[in-house]
Specification:
The protein is 68% helix and 0% strand. By secondary structure, the chain is an all-alpha fold. The chain folds into two domains: 74 residues, no CATH class; 49 residues. α3 crosses α5 and α4 runs antiparallel to α5. The longest helix has 16 residues.
């Protein structure tokens, strides 16, 4: 809110008065906003914690509030694994089950863009239990 008012040319004193009044009235609540954003993003958007964190930082929410919102969501049953599962289901509905390395790489990239970590992505791909054209488990690394 402060950034918006600053960009619109308001004086610093006026900005602080306005923001203070909005906070007192309950209209500005970063903790509530972060909690709501985490629930929506992990739920309907199927975003991972990294993407959620990046977006909230971009929107001006403090790291402490983001950490608290992510921890609360995890305790309330909105887990990273559930969001990851929803993201995999969306990919499979749109493109089908990965049948080769190229498909697996596409899934890996899609999940990374959604904000999931490498280990979670590896587990999700392995859980699909599909084999490529060489009979190799798709979840296995080629290294």
């Amino acid at each position: 809110m402060r950034d918006l008012l600053r960009r619109r040319g308001y004086a610093p004193g006026a900005i602080e008065l306005a923001v203070g009044r909005l906070v007192d009235l309950g209209y500005v609540d970063d903790a509530g906003y972060a909690a709501s954003f985490v629930a929506t993003s992990a739920g309907r958007r199927a975003w991972g914690p990294r993407r959620i964190r990046e977006e909230l930082i971009r929107r001006g929410v403090s790291g402490e509030r983001i950490d608290a919102a992510l921890a609360d969501a995890s305790r309330e049953g909105c887990s990273n694994e559930q969001a990851l599962g929803r993201a995999v289901v969306r990919f499979v509905r749109a493109r089908g089950v990965p049948v080769d390395r190229r498909d697996r790489d596409r899934l890996r990239a899609a999940l990374a863009r959604r904000g999931f970590g490498a280990e979670a992505i590896r587990r999700a791909i392995a859980a699909l239990g599909t084999k490529d054209e060489d009979g190799e488990e798709i979840g296995e690394d080629e290294s």
